[in-house]
């Protein structure tokens, strides 16, 4: 093959092309990225919230008693906050009995590490007494121990630190009253001190780091379907997820498990800031999933029109919360949470893959017009339905065109062949219409693996996103995270359990694109010795230049089983270093565990590079 650069046809492309899609699906939030180790800390799990009639899915979930002559029950009279109604009352007739939490599939702790314990408590009998807090291993041996201060007779928060003396994957947390009597407890919490960037109420360090390593330019949250929920009662309302943890509104999420809202809007925004990514919150367009309840539990329709003004205000309030001065109503709430400076929000998504109906259009238009009028500085991203249902896509685009929505969110999960055969998808787009955020995509094979075949077809398609980076502003693979044994959807980008992070081959494709992005696209003509269309479609090249370093980055995808020998013509580029970095991801199509390897290669104004069969190569060349 010969590959010739045509620098005179270079164009500016988006500097936000690769980001991430974070949805609380497959235990991505509670039990996942959110570092809380206690399951059901607020005793708010509810039987009616769990599909499948799981009788254990109630306020007692994950809690038990260890010891004699003691009992515990759930109460809701005089709670710490009306949004957190349930708490536990522990009655002890013989000192030594413990209230035990099993964590999310156990509690994983490391020797030498410190853990922050906290609890809201009020003693009922006697008038004072302390709580012994400990962690135990699988054999009930104590591996960490501490004590609270004496508990008062009104609700107060108590904190203590545990230092662990043994690494245990399946520890339990025990709360042991050191008195005979009765005590009420709520928001029983345990966090590692070494969260990502050391944040309080923070994120699991290893998972957050794996995400940060993609160098995502934006983070979309909180979904996906979680954003619009499966009924009016179940929409993700941003303002119920900020403020003190005990005042947030927990609920069942659309994927049928509990969402504590501990990982809420403040924590999402802070994570974005910590990794240098733009926050991209997606808010419901006033309608739940498919606005006809097709997800299984939904109510018909959308927010009643009589309540829409209030809802529109809620959307506008988000901008005041994120960007407003600390003396504004919502800006003050952000400042009180520890962030006096604005977050500098630039994008808002309205709607997620909604069924495009009159109900949707009426509500979306209201929200869009209000945002346009009050906050013209914010880029609003509309939704054009799931691509595979056809009409929503077209009708969504019609609305976006009519309203001149700046950007629309497209979703498609397709077989690798679709990505291979639709490389001209965006070449054909009308440049005068809304820009595109490809918010959800992934290559799907039967059995839903994430393997070299899916990863390379995604890489191939991503070269077309770079080529069309003048209209495709953003893209994100979906979903991002999935906890083993709790998988709602596959494939995902990163699998994990309590102790391990397991990136997929598709993750390395995203990481290579994220770490090797550029703001200038340099077209390249590619000629293969074979002129067959089916062969030509399996080899792709994309060349970008990174403005910050001046590096020219060549991405080469070969989805053929055989090696392809390429002659690269760089005569019009000023190469500054004859040694370039080369990273290659390759393997058999069904390979799920290949890792990229990095070496150096010699480059010149003309040089040869052999693309291995089934491979993705990134060559990073210094230029001046
Ligand atoms: O990414 C998983 C799901 O796929 C998202 O929640 C939804 O938007 C889409 O249907």
TrEMBL record:
Keywords, in A-Z order: Hydrolase, Signal
Ranges of residues in domain Alpha-L-arabinofuranosidase C-terminal: 439-615
Record-level Gene Ontology MF annotations: alpha-L-arabinofuranosidase activity
Catalytic reaction list: Hydrolysis of terminal non-reducing alpha-L-arabinofuranoside residues in alpha-L-arabinosides
Highest taxon of the lineage: Bacteria
The EC number(s) this enzyme carries: 3.2.1.55
GO BP, one annotated term: L-arabinose metabolic process
Family according to the record: Belongs to the glycosyl hydrolase 51 family.
Entry protein name: non-reducing end alpha-L-arabinofuranosidase
Organism: Maribellus comscasis
The organism's taxonomic lineage, starting at the top: Bacteria, Pseudomonadati, Bacteroidota, Bacteroidia, Marinilabiliales
């Amino acid at each position: 093959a010969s590959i010739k650069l045509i620098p005179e046809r270079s164009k500016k492309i988006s500097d936000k092309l690769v980001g991430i899609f974070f949805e609380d699906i497959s235990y991505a939030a509670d039990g996942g990225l959110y570092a809380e180790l206690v399951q059901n800390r607020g005793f708010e799990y509810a039987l009616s919230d769990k599909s499948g009639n799981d009788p254990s899915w109630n306020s007692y979930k994950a809690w038990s008693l260890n010891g004699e002559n003691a009992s515990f029950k759930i109460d809701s009279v005089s709670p710490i906050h009306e949004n957190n109604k349930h708490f536990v009352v522990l009655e002890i007739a013989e000192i030594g009995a413990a209230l035990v939490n099993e964590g999310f599939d156990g509690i994983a702790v490391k020797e030498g590490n410190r853990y922050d314990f906290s609890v809201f408590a009020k003693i009922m009998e006697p008038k004072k007494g302390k709580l012994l807090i400990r962690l135990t291993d699988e054999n009930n041996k104590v591996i960490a121990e501490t004590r609270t201060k004496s508990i008062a007779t009104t609700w107060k928060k108590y904190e203590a630190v545990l230092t662990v003396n043994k690494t245990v994957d399946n520890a339990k947390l025990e709360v042991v009253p050191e008195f005979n009597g009765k005590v009420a407890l709520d928001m029983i919490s345990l966090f590692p001190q070494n969260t990502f960037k050391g944040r309080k109420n923070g994120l699991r360090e290893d998972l957050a780091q794996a995400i940060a390593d993609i160098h995502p330019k934006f983070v979309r949250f909180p979904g996906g379907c979680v954003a619009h929920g499966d009924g009016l009662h179940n929409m993700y309302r941003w303002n119920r997820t900020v403020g003190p943890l005990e005042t947030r509104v927990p609920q069942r999420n659309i994927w049928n498990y509990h969402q504590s809202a501990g990982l809420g809007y403040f924590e999402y925004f802070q994570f974005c800031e910590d990794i240098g990514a733009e926050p991209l919150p997606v808010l419901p367009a006033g309608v739940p999933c498919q606005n006809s309840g097709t997800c299984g539990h939904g109510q018909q329709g959308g927010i009643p029109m009589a309540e829409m003004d209030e809802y529109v205000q809620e959307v506008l309030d988000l901008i005041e919360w994120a960007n407003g001065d600390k003396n504004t109503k919502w800006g003050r709430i952000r400042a009180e949470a520890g962030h006096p400076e604005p977050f500098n929000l630039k994008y808002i998504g309205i709607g997620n893959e909604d069924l495009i109906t009159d109900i949707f259009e009426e509500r979306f238009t209201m929200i869009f017009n209000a945002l346009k009028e009050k906050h013209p500085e914010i880029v609003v991203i509309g939704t054009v339905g799931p691509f595979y249902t056809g009409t929503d896509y077209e009708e969504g685009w019609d609305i976006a065109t009519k309203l001149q929505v700046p950007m629309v969110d497209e979703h498609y999960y397709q077989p690798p062949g679709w990505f291979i055969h639709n490389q001209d998808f965006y070449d054909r787009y009308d440049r005068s219409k809304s820009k595109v955020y490809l918010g959800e995509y992934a290559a799907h094979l039967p059995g839903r693996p994430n393997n070299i075949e899916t990863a390379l077809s995604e890489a191939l398609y991503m070269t077309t996103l770079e080529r069309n980076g003048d209209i495709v502003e953003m893209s994100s693979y979906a979903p991002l995270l999935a906890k083993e044994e709790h998988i709602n959807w596959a494939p995902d980008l990163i699998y994990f359990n309590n102790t391990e992070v397991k990136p997929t081959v598709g993750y390395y494709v995203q990481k290579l694109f994220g770490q090797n992005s550029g703001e200038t696209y340099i077209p390249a003509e590619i000629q293969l010795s074979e002129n067959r269309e089916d062969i030509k479609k399996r080899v792709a090249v994309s060349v970008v230049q990174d403005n910050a370093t001046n590096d020219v980055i060549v991405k080469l995808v070969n989805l053929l089983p055989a090696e392809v020998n390429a002659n690269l013509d760089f005569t019009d580029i000023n190469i500054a270093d004859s040694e370039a970095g080369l990273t290659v991801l390759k393997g058999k199509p069904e390979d799920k565990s290949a890792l990229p390897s990095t070496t150096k290669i010699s480059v010149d104004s003309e040089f040869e590079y052999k693309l291995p069969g089934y491979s993705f190569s990134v060559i990073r060349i210094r230029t001046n």
